[in-house]
Amino acid sequence: MLSTRAIRRWTWTHKWSSLVCTVFMLLLCITGLPLIFHHEIGHLLGTEIEAAAMPADAPRADLDAVMRTAIARHPTLQGMFASQEEDDDRVWYVTLAPTPDATAGFKQVAVDARTGQALGEPSLDSGFMYVMRSLHIDLFIGLPGMLFLGLMGVLLLASLVSGTVLYAPFMRKLRFGEIRRERSARAKWLDLHNLVGIVTLVWFTVVGATGVINAWADLLVKYYQSTEVAAMLAPYKGKPPLASPGSLQGAVAAALAHERGMKVAFVAFPGTSFASPHHYGVFLRGGEHVTAKLLKPVLVDAATSQVTDSRELPWYLKTLLVSQPLHFGDYGGLPMQILWALLDIATIVVLATGLVLWWRKRAPARAADTASSSRVRA
């Protein structure tokens, strides 16, 4: 049984942690809803790249030819990354930039993985989904925005814990799911808030926790590069960079031969942040649905196409890679997407009713202040 003092402390924690983060959580829920269906919305808007249907055993284009096709579209740029989506290996997405370590001026060319023909150029910095994704991830301000939203996620978790602690003694007086329709409007709003809140508690906790983890993504990757990657590249320290990298096809073939049964997720070109001036960084994923979320880096000497190192990702990056698809319901296909969307909408109801409760509680105080001011002026 909670003491009166404990109830006051938990109430204060729940009130202020909720009030500070609610507006931003509403923003994240609203922007997160279309992101759950980003592929489906892309098809409706015509922004998804469509590859022609061919037999599953159709021959694959040489990756060096794929790169030549992409660079022919932008001859002044050079390769940074080549990637494929988890559920569609018919298309290579080649990212180009003025230099391997560029931070702006990117272009992306989609190339058919069977024919080697260009399919189009997805937009990287415009469109409806770009706006939704940027608002959801970093508020258009990069790492500071990510860390700020991560802090809001911590406050959300505090509000969920404190709300659960307060909910237990409160519900001893009511049947589960009861809405006191005969009571005041505020009581009905409170019952609705508590009901939807406890129903969505587990989901909201999972999404909030994975969101906090995702907010640290950039810092975790930088730490990995400064520790694990630096150790993998130690034998090449001090050597001059390559004037021209060797075969991309040879590097990918060497990586796949070294890690049999895996598939290519993306390839980082020499000089980029996920490789070195001397290596291709070939990042492979597992062949099963669950293991496809986890990556394994393979460093391949860009001059000789020899594998120089390959090791498992550290636990913190594995946690990050698992949390990212879980955050958006990217497990289990359309049924899970629909479930995630329904729970997202229910969460919007929780947040909105919480604001209504706070506003209605302030109304009598505002009225009393107004009346007092009127008497003083009289």
Automatic annotation (TrEMBL):
Q: Which domain of life is it from?
A: Bacteria
Q: Where are the transmembrane segments?
A: 16-37, 139-168, 189-217, 338-359
Q: Which UniProt keywords apply?
A: Membrane, Transmembrane, Transmembrane helix
Q: Which residues form a coiled coil?
A: none
Any Pfam family the entry gives: PepSY_TM
Q: What is this protein called?
A: Putative iron-regulated membrane protein
Source lineage: Bacteria, Pseudomonadati, Pseudomonadota, Betaproteobacteria, Burkholderiales
